[in-house]
Design a protein that fits this description.
- This protein has nine helices and 13 strands.
- By secondary structure, the chain is of the alpha+beta class.
- The longest helix has about 70 residues.
- The radius of gyration is 47 Å and the shape is rod-shaped.
- It binds adenosine-5'-diphosphate.
- The site of adenosine-5'-diphosphate (ADP) has 22 residues, from helix 7 and helix 9.
């Protein structure tokens, strides 16, 4: 049989597991965030790269075509036999250099030829793509274009990158003579692209680190409320287990000693009652978290309810020698919409607490009034009061101002948590004011649905 103590977890262990669990989830979120952003950056960078290269290639092709067109027009009338350059043609092209010839540097007599000095390239190819001659450059600077590629990039002997563009050359009768291949150096663009690659190569990982850090911080921020409610839940589980332990241990001892005399019987009944109340309270609390059920909603007359609570608790007050009184307006009835048994339970909790925590010959007064659209119920006692440091916690589950003192009153520490949950599900407000040794005032404010004059 498992020991009841087995149910209780050590708080530090829960805390440690919580922290590592949250840090793990936080890390996972930060990594996912950085991964998603990094991939997006990479895709964007790659797309920008493709678009830039395509745009540049198209511009260079157009430029080369215009450049070639000038020569094409000049040569149209001079070209006679396919694949052959006549002497007159050769003369009209200063700086022309044939295969296996030593080429002289070009003298820029015209603006056009001047361009050839500035990284432009021009050569004549046969119909099969063999090189015949080049202008101002060595014809063997690049291999022949036997596949007749229309345009491509290639490195020259010095390792400089060129873009070459092919144009058909025709003779007078529209017959194909061969090809004119024009090209220009794209080394600058290539260097520029290389720097972009470097930028992407270094920028993406470093931005991923920055995004990861921001993600870690943001995930921490977003998880803070979840962490808090998770801790509250853990705390609640630990407290509930602790609360259940005492009656179960007592029952265990009684059953184990096997001596059921009338006195033991009474103790047994008391513990069972305590357990049943505790479990009912826990169930009520979890049901309250689900909100109000439409089917159980009805119009409740606050005047009647306050009178009923007073009547029910009168014997308890008399036993405690506390003077219980009420002030209920008799000219009109105040109605709210809600769950009657819950509202009754809420008032019962507040008034019974007031009696429990008021010493003999003290007073407890229930006052019902309204402001414009709200019913206001005030429960005022002249009891022991609540220290200021405890006030923010009294609505927490299982919280007791002084555990021993409360235990004598038979409370479990769930009363005010249930009271607050009921008020909140009815869209109301619960306020408390208290002074040690002077007394406490709990004020419940609930939205009214109607006010009927008698
Ligand atoms: P319990 O069931 O122990 O009474 P509650 O949730 O009803 O638990 O109340 C929480 C704590 O608030 C109590 O332990 C008690 O110390 C304090 N308390 C509640 N009502 C009053 C009151 N009217 N006067 C003084 N202390 C109060």
């Amino acid at each position: 049989m498992p020991e009841v103590g087995d149910l209780i977890f050590t708080k530090s262990k829960i805390q440690m597991n919580n922290n590592s669990l949250f840090n793990y989830s936080r890390l996972k979120l930060a990594i996912t965030y950085a991964g998603v952003m990094g991939t997006t950056l990479l895709i964007c960078g790659y797309m920008a790269h493709i678009v830039m290269v395509q745009a540049f290639t198209r511009t260079v092709d157009r430029e080369l075509e215009l450049f070639g067109k000038v020569f094409e027009d000049q040569l149209k009338t001079e070209l006679k036999i396919p694949g052959e350059l006549s002497i007159t043609t050769q003369k009209s092209l200063p700086g022309i250099c044939f295969k296996q010839q030593s080429c002289l540097p070009i003298k820029s007599e015209s603006e056009l030829l001047g361009l050839l000095v500035e990284g432009y390239y021009l050569r004549f190819l046969t119909l099969s793509g063999e090189v015949i001659a080049a202008i101002g450059n060595n014809p063997d600077e690049f291999p022949p274009n036997l596949q007749i590629y229309p345009s491509y990039d290639i490195k020259n002997r010095n390792g400089e990158l060129y873009h070459l563009h092919l144009m058909p050359l025709k003779i007078n009768n529209n017959q194909l003579w061969g090809y004119l291949q024009v090209g220009r150096s794209v080394q600058r663009l290539n260097d520029y692209m290389n720097s972009l690659h470097w930028l992407l190569g270094l920028g993406v990982p470093s931005s991923m680190i920055i995004i990861g850090g921001a993600g870690w911080w943001l995930a921490g921020l977003a998880m803070r409320p979840i962490k808090k409610s998770y801790q509250q839940l853990q705390q609640f589980t630990a407290d509930a287990a602790h609360e259940l332990r005492t009656p179960i241990t007592s029952l265990q001892t009684i059953v184990e000693t096997n001596s059921i005399n009338p006195e033991t019987q009474k103790a047994l009944e008391r513990q069972i009652k305590r357990l049943v109340t505790l479990i009912q309270d826990l169930l009520l609390l979890s049901r309250l978290e689900g909100g109000l059920q439409e089917a159980k909603l009805q119009q409740i007359c606050l005047n009647d309810l306050v009178a009923d609570v007073e009547e029910e608790l009168m014997p308890m007050a008399m036993d405690a020698q506390v003077l219980l009184s009420s002030h209920i307006p008799d000219q009109s009835d105040f109605y709210i919409q809600g769950n009657e048994s819950q509202i009754y339970r809420m008032l019962l909790n507040l008034v019974s607490n007031a009696i429990k925590y008021t010493p003999a010959s003290g007073e407890v007064n229930i006052h019902l009034t309204t402001n414009e659209h709200q019913g206001v119920i005030t429960i005022k006692d002249t009891g022991i009061g609540i220290p200021n440091s405890d006030l923010p916690h009294i609505f927490e589950r299982f919280y007791r101002v002084n555990a021993d003192r409360s235990r004598n009153t038979g409370g479990s520490g769930l009363g005010l948590a249930i009271t607050l949950a009921i008020v909140q599900t009815h869209k109301g407000k619960l306020e408390v004011q208290s002074h040690v040794n002077k007394g406490s005032t709990f004020t419940v404010i609930l939205p009214l649905v109607s006010k009927l004059n008698r």
